[in-house]
Amino acid sequence: MVGFSSELEVGGTLSLPYFNSKQVAFRGEDGQVRILDAFCPHLGADLGAGGKVMGNSIQCPFHHWRFGEDGRCVEIPYCERIPKNSELRAWEVVERNGMIFLWFSPTGSPPEFEVPVLPNETEQGWTAWAHSKIRIRTHSREIVENVVDLAHFSPVHGTVVETFENEFTGHLAIQRAAGTAYPRGGGVDHFRNEATYYGPGFQISFMDGYMHSMLVNAHTMIDDNTLDLRFGVTVRPREGKTVSPEILDRYVENLTTGFLEDVRIWENKTYHDTPVLCAGDGPIGKLRRWYAQFYEPPAP
User: Which residues are CB-neighbours of 206 under 8 A, at least 6 positions away?
Assistant: First the structure.
């Protein structure tokens, strides 16, 4: 995941810093999102820093070379002949559920699974995503391990977990839990939650508690040791009730506080390939074997 749809209006651009490279996302006049490598093949200008959307193409801010949706240069204003190799990588993009995704494979292999269609795509009544982003010095594998790390909920978050189970099926890693949370902003929330990772980078949670809600938790690597963590919530109010923007903002504030409690751990820990575990730790070994499938080549 590289953004929420609301962050990119028609004719707008987003500068993206992912996978030890740089990309530019833009929304053409047809409303579709395209993502290209950002650095112009001419003299290296960053299309995400002043590039102009023209129709369904983007113009370089330096010499006005223009690139189409497939990354090919389609116009040089001062030269009729377009040189060979004057194209940018065009990334495979899916926009769904109010979020923007791109497929990354270091070897260029095609997508191996789909982004699911969520209820807010097909049902009326869901609020717009209330969302935020944190940049963290860690690796995605650290965040994914929360899906099985039962023992950390009480000491780190003050959450009492009463039932907890995991399931691993293909590209899915699922956590089902119920218990009582004590948000740092005050109050008590009795919750039941099913959280599913679709691949290694984004998780969708359905939570029944004070509100019926969907949460997204998505982390995308910038380099080997840094990532952007995006998270957000959408709510479908129960019949006859409404949810104010203030309540959604408070919800996101509580999510932010919870993630920051983890961030303090993630940014200062080391990763043990063979950790010393005990019976109450949860199926960390199963989670790591599941996660290994997403390396190219697959990890041991």
Answer: 193, 194, 195, 213, 214
